[in-house]
Amino acid sequence: MAKILVDEMDDGWDEKLKILGHEAYSVKKLITEGKKLHTDYSVINYAKENRLILITRDTESGQACMENNIPCILLDNNEIFKIIVEKLKDY
């Protein structure tokens, strides 16, 4: 199973991913535990140092991950639009 870091916007997905057997962490929860993850750079660096796949909606963070070979799932508007187009095929 994957080791995952869920960005702040999608706090709660970490819990759902844990149920599926993944090792998942939430940026928001890590901040409440005292981790200094208040910038995109610190979040990306934390993911890199801990060998986590970052799940984010932040396009800049996604691009930074891709440019630096850090595993990332970017849920930007293009990805969301692809899902919409695919679901529209059912109608």
Give a written overview of the molecule.
This is DUF5615 domain-containing protein. It comes from Candidatus Nitrosotenuis cloacae. By secondary structure, this protein is α/β, with parallel strands linked by helices. The protein has one domain (3-88). It has five helices and four strands. The chain has helices spanning 13-19, 27-32, 40-49, 59-67, 77-88; strands spanning 3-6, 23-26, 53-56, 72-74. A four-stranded parallel beta sheet has the order 2-1-3-4, with helices on both faces. The radius of gyration is 14 Å and the shape is globular.
Number of helices: 5
Distance between the termini: 35 Å
Radius of gyration: 14 Å
Strand order of the largest sheet: 2-1-3-4
Number of extended strands: 4
Question: What is the string of helix and strand elements?
Answer: EHEHHEHEH
What's the structural domain tally?
A: 1
Mean pLDDT: 95
Helix-strand makeup class: alpha/beta
Beta-strand portion reads 15-25%
Spans of at least 5 consecutive residues whose pLDDT stays below 50 are: none
> From the structure provided, what is the oligomeric state, counting identical versus distinct chains?
single chain
Main sheet characteristics = 4 strands, parallel
**Mass-distribution shape:** globular
Percent of residues in helices: 40-55%
